[in-house]
Design a protein that fits this description.
This protein has two domains: 278 residues, Zn peptidases (Aminopeptidase, 3-Layer(aba) Sandwich), CATH 3.40.630.10; 121 residues, Alpha-Beta Plaits (2-Layer Sandwich), CATH 3.30.70.360. Strands 1-2-6-3-7-19 form a six-stranded mixed beta sheet, covered by helices on one side. It has a four-stranded mixed beta sheet with strand order 18-9-8-20. The longest helix has 27 residues. The chain has 456 residues and is an alpha/beta fold. It has twelve helices and 21 strands.
């Protein structure tokens, strides 16, 4: 199936325009210009629009339609820094096409996702009777790549009493065989830094006979946090974990891809104890985990330097299951370290904003979306109960009461946050077609339901 060439060409021009704006939120760069461009595109597509300030970047809102069903679409226009520049084949802020792919910073994350949906909306709007029988709220923010520090406050202030049925999340995935993946949830995240200091300055290593070493202290503290199976040893850590719903657990019983594929894609070799070809997918979806992101201290240069370091730092992140509160987990971590005699290890919380969420895959709109994705991509859609990664979806789920629906075009070789970020042109076109028919299918279903006689 193919979309009209003029529609695809317009979408490519829109994407090129957005990619050309270096909207790097980490530097606070060009965010206003990109917000203005996003608003312009939404206005041209028939939305009533507004902008609201955020801590760093503006929020752009587009609204249209009314009715008993509310659809929220969430995207973001900010991007990651382009470094390292020398690893890009073409300039990062110029959309380039080669080998059936479109390259550029934000081509996938998240400007390509936004543009593909907007092009689908244009196609739907041109051929559908009006008025729209459901309410559509499109929220596009400029702070996602720095953790969305003001998203929750903005939603609480701008939409205090809003209830929604569905939240079409910022992205969805396409696996390496071309199968679309619908994401129904995300894990929460807690990022912390542990620091240990044992002296005013680095000492001669001979003094290691009497003075303790901060790197040994940190290594001992970190090793006391989990076992070889990855199970976290902090007392009370698992108390609030919400067990998976039966349907969600059923979806993980037969992994949609073999473990060997994941190992081939990532180069990952050593598995945790108890993880094998039959259990890895369940772990990815449901299990919390703890990672050591970095371990720093002492001498790391060329050759030897016999030194006893005065300080060391370890950076950790927890991926948390629904039900676990990052702030509470940080408190439990502090108590665990103190109980084991590591009161001298300082704990700094770097990020405790993101709660885990998981929505019901049995929602009717999910089934509609899965059927349309199969139609446009030619492969049955995978409904994945939860991404192994994290996203600030909890205000949409907990505050609005929306079912999460992550469908899009981010393929597994998209090089997100890396040089040569890209999307596949064919999948870009497929997502435009899917989006157009998804908007139409929701209109048809909601329209028919509103015409059914009520038994009051």
């Amino acid at each position: 199936m193919r979309m009209p060439s003029e529609l695809v060409a317009e979408a490519k021009r829109n994407l090129a325009d957005l990619v050309s704006i270096p909207s790097v939120s980490a530097r606070g760069q060009s965010l206003d210009a990109c917000a203005d461009k996003v608003e312009e595109l939404l206005l041209e597509a028939g939305f009533e629009t507004e902008q609201h300030p955020g801590d760093v970047g503006r929020f752009v809102v587009g609204e249209t339609g009314e009715g008993p069903f509310t659809l929220i679409i969430y995207n973001h226009y900010d991007v990651q820094p382009e470094d390292p520049l020398d690893l890009w084949t073409d300039p990062p802020f110029v959309l380039s096409e080669r080998g059936g792919r479109l390259y550029g910073r934000g081509a996938a994350d998240d400007k390509g996702e936004f543009v593909s949906r907007l092009a689908g909306w244009r196609s739907f709007r041109a051929g559908h009777a009006w008025p729209l029988p459901y309410r559509l709220i499109w929220i596009v923010e400029g702070e996602e790549e720095i953790g969305s520090p003001s998203l929750t406050r903005f939603l609480q202030k701008r939409f205090p009493d809003t209830k929604a049925d569905l939240c079409w999340w910022e992205y969805g995935e396409v696996d390496r065989t071309g199968r679309p993946i619908i994401l129904m949830g995300f894990k929460g995240v807690l990022a912390v830094e542990l620091e240990c200091r044992t002296a005013r300055a680095d000492l001669h290593s001979s003094l290691g006979a009497i003075f303790d070493n901060p790197l040994w202290r940190l290594a001992s503290a970190v090793s006391a946090l989990r076992d070889a199976s990855g199970r976290i040893l902090i007392e009370g850590f698992y108390d609030d974990v919400m067990p998976p719903e039966p349907y969600s657990r059923d979806l993980t019983a037969a992994p949609p891809f073999p473990l060997e594929d994941l190992q081939a894609e990532t180069g990952g070799r050593r598995l945790l104890e108890g993880v094998d070809a039959t259990t890895f997918y369940e772990h990815l979806n449901f299990e919390p985990c703890l990672n050591v992101n970095g371990f720093h201290g002492g001498y790391g240069g060329e050759g030897a330097k016999t030194v006893l370091p005065c300080t060391g730092v370890a950076k950790l992140d927890f991926r948390l299951a629904p039900g676990q509160n990052p702030v509470r987990i940080a408190e439990l971590l502090r108590a665990h370290l103190d109980k084991l005699g590591f009161g001298d290890v300082e704990l700094r919380v770097l990020d405790a904003e993101v709660l885990g969420v998981r929505s019901d895959p049995a929602h009717a709109a999910v089934g509609i979306g899965a059927a349309l994705l199969e139609k446009w991509f030619g492969r049955p859609a995978i409904i994945q109960p939860s991404s192994a990664a994290s996203g600030l979806a909890h205000p949409f789920v907990h505050m609005f009461g929306a079912t999460l629906f992550g469908a899009g075009l981010t393929h597994h070789g998209a090089m997100l946050h890396s040089p040569d970020e890209n999307i596949i042109v064919e999948q870009f076109e497929n997502t435009i077609g899917f989006s157009a028919e998804f908007f139409a299918a929701l209109a048809d279903v909601v329209g028919k339901q509103s015409q059914e006689p009520r038994n009051d």
